[in-house]
Design a protein that fits this description.
20 helices; 6 strands; mainly alpha
Length: 581
């Protein structure tokens, strides 16, 4: 029985169909036939440690899973499992997270495990699995004999029978059964005998259990050669080591399974522990261009097959669910959620809402403006791309208006997302579709009234800096007026009104930066318990929309050139739908 009680079948590694036990590497590679195929095995050359074998881009890659032994404490697991990002209380939890979210197993390879290879036949077990996998070490039969009070109890007895202790000072325990602790997460090339190791350990040192290192690993263990001396066959991982001080006393480590936006580090809440750090460089919150599950390595603009897939994807989700997906992606793009410690150190502040008001936030401001424009173009395309009957275009209009209502203050509270949808609905190419809007007013009167009487006045107030901005109603504030002003755009309108609007915009920017921790709490509260769809989440990212609209080659063109060309495309589509309006 482990420290957390008996495992359920869903968390027992031996009950997982993708776990093949002590399977040789050559046999594992023969089972992986297509990109995305994966299995988990116990590596013989790595002391029985769990290894994820995955075929990606024609090659079979092997990823050893780091295992960190925890201090015994009721209510938490005996060990945590980690690749590069967060830690998990069990191997099944780790596999679920990476496969369900289609997350790359490593940043360097971008390999995505998507299809498990099911084990055929009974599972073979080995001694090393009991000591290094999810199953706890069985040492209860040896706890009545303690050789020395100066050494941890049963250190020399683990994995041995009572008859093995007739000799003193030596140990016959196999090297593959050595426990790996969090204070030494690296696999040693030539491990010392256990008896020798025990002589250097004292019960007061606490070296049997995890102490999170203060620095990341400089030489990842996965870069070592195999025991046979052959060239490395394991992919190098660079795990992100969390600080040991982040876990509140008594908190269960099972919370590592929570989504990252629920377990967000709130360093800005402890003002007395913070000190000013000089900004080092511009920081980007755009995720890397990982392999897409919807677009191939190369794609043409407005691929018909992808557009049909996206249409079905959005129809499967109601506006409230789509609004939460957009809120999640917008919070990450604006640096409100998911900000790493390195990013905080580089930008000198705690969140992107503060960074975008500073001189060195120029890159972030440009990224946010590009995101606003690309999402607006994609929204307009959702209407203008409907070449079918009038009812189809009216239904697309209705869907955008309902999404805007789900994004407004008091609902999802994603004001940048609301601004992008409203910008799409108010584009000249869309607003000129008189027959379509007339059909919307006849068939969906309530939606049309909400657009005219609620959404349009709300958007006008937000652009003028007088709209709602309370963190209780809003999860992500409307940053567009401040960003445009800081990037040198001139305010339109009479001089007196422009001065008042300028003052409101500057005051709103200061308020937004000051209330960044409150907005973070409000966003995390709305996303609590939310399980996003990986494909829909990807479809709302800036990088995906950029490639969808302009193709993999055109996406690298200057933004102004891309916007001008696509506006021309939308004008042609609008004229074809309703010529002469």
């Amino acid at each position: 029985m482990s420290m957390q009680g008996p495992q359920q079948d869903g968390e027992d590694l031996n009950h997982q169909p993708w776990y093949h036990g002590p399977l040789p590497r050559q046999k594992a590679e023969a089972l992986l036939l297509q990109d995305g195929d994966f299995l988990v095995r116990a590596s013989g050359s790595r002391g029985g440690h769990p290894v994820i074998s995955c075929r990606w881009r024609g090659s079979v890659l092997h990823f050893e899973v780091f295992r960190v032994v925890m201090r015994p404490r009721p209510g938490r697991p005996a060990a945590l499992f980690q690749l590069e990002d967060e830690r998990f209380p069990s191997m099944p939890a780790l596999v679920r997270s990476y496969t369900a979210g289609r997350r790359p197993l490593s940043r360097a390879t971008g390999a995505v495990a998507s299809r498990p290879v099911v084990r055929q036949g009974p599972l073979r077990r080995s001694f090393s699995e009991d000591t290094l996998m999810d199953c706890p070490v069985r040492t209860e039969g040896f706890r009545d004999r303690k050789w020395s009070n100066s050494q941890p109890a049963d250190l020399e007895l683990t994995g041995q029978s009572k008859e093995d202790h007739s000799g003193a000072g030596t140990s016959t325990i196999p090297i593959s059964a050595l426990l790996r602790t969090g204070s030494d997460p690296m696999l040693l090339k030539a491990p010392a005998p256990l008896g020798t190791t025990a002589d250097h350990l004292r019960a007061s040192d606490g070296q049997l259990h995890a102490k999170a290192p203060t620095k990341p690993l400089r030489t990842p263990s996965l870069a070592l050669t195999d025991a046979s001396g052959s060239l490395p066959t394991y992919c190098e991982l660079v795990p992100r080591v969390p600080s040991a001080q982040r876990m509140p006393p008594g908190q269960s480590c099972l919370e590592t399974e929570s989504p990252w936006w629920e377990a967000e580090e709130e360093e800005d809440m402890v003002e007395e522990d913070r000190c000013f750090a000089r900004p080092q460089a511009d920081v980007s919150f755009c995720p890397p261009d990982n392999p897409s599950c919807l677009l191939g390595p190369q794609n043409r603009p407005l691929d018909h097959k992808v557009l049909c897939t996206l249409r079905g994807l959005f129809l499967e989700h109601h506006p409230g669910s789509t609004a939460l997906h957009l809120l999640l992606v917008d919070c990450q793009a604006a640096g409100l959620l998911g900000v790493t410690k390195l990013q905080r150190a580089a930008m000198g502040v705690a969140s992107g809402l503060e960074l975008l008001t500073l001189p060195h936030g120029h890159r972030l401001r440009l990224e946010l403006l590009e995101r606003l424009e690309t999402l607006a173009l994609a929204g307009a395309l959702a209407v203008l791309g409907c070449s079918g009957p009038l009812e189809e275009r009216a239904a697309a209009l209705r869907g955008l208006v309902e999404l805007a209502l789900a994004l407004r203050p008091g609902a999802a509270g994603d004001l940048p997302g609301l601004a992008a949808i409203m910008r799409a609905l108010l584009m000249p190419q869309v607003s000129r579709l008189e027959h379509t809007w007339r059909h919307l007013r006849r068939s969906h009167t309530e939606v049309a009234l909400a657009f005219e009487q609620e959404l349009k006045p709300l958007m006008r107030a937000l652009d003028e800096g007088s709209g709602p901005c309370d963190p209780g109603e809003v999860a992500l504030p409307h940053w567009a007026p401040a960003v445009r002003l800081l990037e040198g755009e001139e305010l339109v309108g009479p001089l007196e009104e422009g001065c008042e609007r300028l003052l409101r915009t500057l005051h709103g920017a200061r308020q937004m930066a000051r209330d960044a921790p409150k907005f973070r709490k409000a966003a995390a509260l709305r996303l609590r318990g939310f399980q996003p769809n990986p494909e829909l989440r990807e479809a709302l990212t800036t990088g995906f929309v950029r490639r969808l609209l302009w193709g993999s080659r055109g996406a690298s063109a200057p933004l102004s050139e891309r916007l001008e060309k696509f506006q021309h495309v939308l004008t042609i589509l609008s004229q074809r739908l309703e010529p002469g309006c």
